[in-house]
Automatic annotation (TrEMBL):
Source organism per UniProt: Micromonospora endophytica
SUPFAM superfamilies, per database record: Enolase C-terminal domain-like (SSF51604), Enolase N-terminal domain-like (SSF54826)
Record-level GO BP terms: amino acid catabolic process; carbohydrate catabolic process
Designated name of the protein: Bifunctional D-altronate/D-mannonate dehydratase
Pfam families according to UniProt: MR_MLE_C (PF13378), MR_MLE_N (PF02746)
Length: 408
């Protein structure tokens, strides 16, 4: 099972993706996702210039050894670029191992612990009627759990609110724009804190008590503001409040936890288990939000989620459109196999992305399933990928009214 080739393919069908394809001497190929939104070419270079030469000639079966070798031999630890590159290699090797075994990857991870993977979709609106329409549209698509994001009076552009196209076509929120400079947006935490509880009251009034509702505060609040929001949202029984503070300061969550029983989810910007040490050991969160793509792949995510399981903390794997179908499929195999599954984020990709990445996973009645093809179940159409070269795209950023840069 010698590795004879490793190719980095950067493509931009609906958005940019970094894909690693590893080939073994007996012709088995495996795919890994290394997409890092707005910083894609840094991972492509890390892989091409510094990792691919080290892979050639290695035994593709030795996944743990490859992971430890890439992590420790670099000397410079952690970080999103390094951990996305390691994730791409790790997932590609798991894809190869599962294909060689003739099994879908989840079988190698212990087999299915459930029949389907509960997914949540993203509803949003500039006002309450538009938000209701978006929630109804998601229910019609089959979603049984819904994230709710809304505009706030006094703020021009708020994270997570899709600009409606007006022509009735589906338009999911995509934060990265194909522009040469990051777009500048605005923010006002006091206006947001005043507005949001009323929105959830309206949503519960319209859709009843049962529908699981989620919300993402996107790192914008201080600990005491987050505590206030969690408390204010308690009557609306959220499934989770996500990224209520930036959370690099893990101890800050002690303060939030003292004040609210709203479940907390954190971690989409984290990339190793070390970012969670205090959060998990002190049970300061309820859901781990890391992406397989940004946290060192299946090997590292399995260890992180097993650690979380000892504290009754569950998975909530990151699944925005900036995770490619390869990263998404890898997440689904893990979701199906682990015991402490919580929920899976699912934003459907566009039609061009589906042309480039042939997928076997399914979404039926609100539940995802990775399918039963050997491997992770995604194949890359390289000719199609070549039709969509990289396009510079950036995430936005925020300034407060006085011009201060703020978390977006
Ligand atoms: O803003 O993945 O919960 N999901 C999110 C995402 C992130 C993007 C950033 O690349 O917060 O939409
Ligand atoms: Co988020």
């Amino acid at each position: 099972m010698k590795i004879v080739a490793a190719d980095v393919i950067v493509s931009s069908p609906d958005r940019n993706f970094v894909t690693l394809k590893i080939t073994t001497a007996d012709g088995i190929t495996g795919l890994g996702d290394g997409t890092l939104n707005g910083r894609e070419l840094s991972v492509a270079s890390y892989l091409r210039d510094h990792v691919v030469p080290l892979l050639l000639g290695r035994d593709a079966h030795r996944i743990e050894d490859a992971w430890q070798f890439l992590y420790r031999s670099a000397y410079w630890r952690r970080g999103p670029v390094t951990m996305a590159a390691i994730a791409a290699v790790d997932v590609a090797l798991w894809d190869i191992k599962a294909k060689a075994a003739g099994m879908p990857l989840y079988q190698l991870l212990g087999g299915a612990s459930r029949t389907g993977i509960m997914a949540y979709g993203h509803a949003s609106g500039r006002d309450v009627p538009e938000l209701f329409d978006s929630i109804r549209a998601h229910l019609e698509l089959g979603f049984r759990s819904i994230r709710v994001q809304t505009s706030v009076p006094g703020i021009n552009a708020v994270y997570g609110v899709a600009a409606q196209s007006g022509d009735g076509k589906r338009y999911d929120y995509e934060p990265a724009q194909r522009i040469p400079l990051p777009a500048e947006e605005d923010w006002d935490s006091r206006a947001y804190l005043r507005h949001l509880p009323g929105v959830f009251e309206a949503v519960r009034g319209e859709f009843g008590p049962e529908l699981p509702l989620l919300h993402d505060a996107h790192h914008r609040l201080t600990p005491i503001q987050a505590a206030r929001l969690g408390k204010a949202l308690e009557p609306y029984d959220l499934f989770w409040l996500e990224d209520c503070t930036p959370a690099e300061n893990q101890e800050a969550l002690r303060l939030v936890r003292q004040h609210t029983t709203t479940p907390l989810a954190i971690g989409e910007v984290f990339n190793t288990v070390w970012d969670y040490q205090t959060l998990i050991r002190e049970q300061l969160i309820d859901y781990v939000r890391s992406a397989v793509t940004h946290t060192g792949g299946i090997t590292a995510m399995r260890k992180l989620l097993d650690f979380a399981a000892q504290y009754q903390i569950k998975s909530g794997i990151h699944g925005p459109t900036d995770i490619s179908p390869v990263g998404m499929a890898a997440a689904l195999h893990l979701d199906l196999a682990i015991h402490n599954f919580g929920i899976q984020e699912y934003m459907r990709h566009g039609a061009l992305t589906d042309e480039v990445f042939r997928q076997s996973f399914t979404f039926t009645d609100g539940y995802l399933h990775p399918g039963d093809q050997p491997g992770i179940g995604v194949e890359l159409d390289e000719q199609a990928a070549a039709r969509f070269p990289y396009q510079p795209a950036y995430l936005p950023f925020n300034r407060l009214k006085d011009g201060t840069v703020h978390d977006w």
